[in-house]
Input
Amino acid sequence: MKILAIETSCDETSAAVIEDGVKVLSNEIASQADLHAVTGGVVPEIAAREHAIALPYIYRQALEKAGLKASDIDAFAATTTPGLIGALLVGTSTAKTLSHLYNKPFISVNHIKGHIFSTYLERELNSFKFPFITLTVSGGHTQIWLINSFSNQQLLGETQDDAAGEAYDKIAKMLGLPYPGGPALAKVARDGDQRKYKLPIAKLDKPLNFSFSGLKTAVLYLTQELTNSGERPLTQKEIADLAASAQAAINTALVENSVLSLKKHKVDTLHLVGGVSANLDLQARLTEATANYNCNLVKPAKPIYSTDNAAMIGAAAYFDFANC
Ligand code: KG4
Ligand code: ZN
Output
């Protein structure tokens, strides 16, 4: 079964052709990152307009790369939620129009489910034993899921305020680093001392939840104190130490809750998905923590499947439609 999937929930215009849920025949992505770098963040109206311009080319390119015509496709899928509404509507209306035009089913996909099933891309349908835990960390969401089957997932914990990627981006902005802040912060953190500043890691009533807003405020107060309320700029050393300390605080929370969920549900495999999973410090901490508990850490087969892409939407669409 060949699915043409479309992803336009945020600032990536992507279309992919996926065969039987796991085989990636094509996965085309046009990023709007350079455009949003000018404003230091995603402007929803601009994102939607850019999707409308790019998508007709991107979905045709995805078909061409797969060596197929639209009439060869068995079903059309799109991310319908969560995301920026104007942006989502571009992908959804395009996929629905194609489904009407070619008289094939339309499959609605939840973006988070796309991230969850991104670890299956370019692997076998039976690659992983259920249940497993998935940590989804990106600019828009930070959640821990218990994955019981392709059709049954339970949300165990999530952020009560900012997503981890959002915290990375906002703290990077405070430190004067360019957009997108996560990779920029991770880069300068390499030269910093993660123990230099003691930053708060929120402890919540529901232990598997997260909160990153207190950390953000703590970094803001610290920068104000260090710069005498903006009388002088931060030094390179201060920026590196603040970046390393903030990165350690965010990643410690992610690792602690992941390990807690593995133990609580007696599960031995953790999947790490979403844009923030590109963070090397997080990968190193999770590798060590899972090894200490004799657990496996699984990442998507390629880094491109961690950030927003339509291939993962095609995988989730297939598992839902084929009733796996
Ligand atoms: O999954 P994604 O591409 O888009 C959303 O669904 O949000 O994730 C993007 C997020 C951004 O916040 C970006 O700063 C963060 O992932 N990110 C990183 C790194 N690479 C991307 N955060 C920390 N370290 C990185 N190396
Ligand atoms: Zn995402």
Notes: Residues 6 and 79 are 7 Å apart (CA to CA).
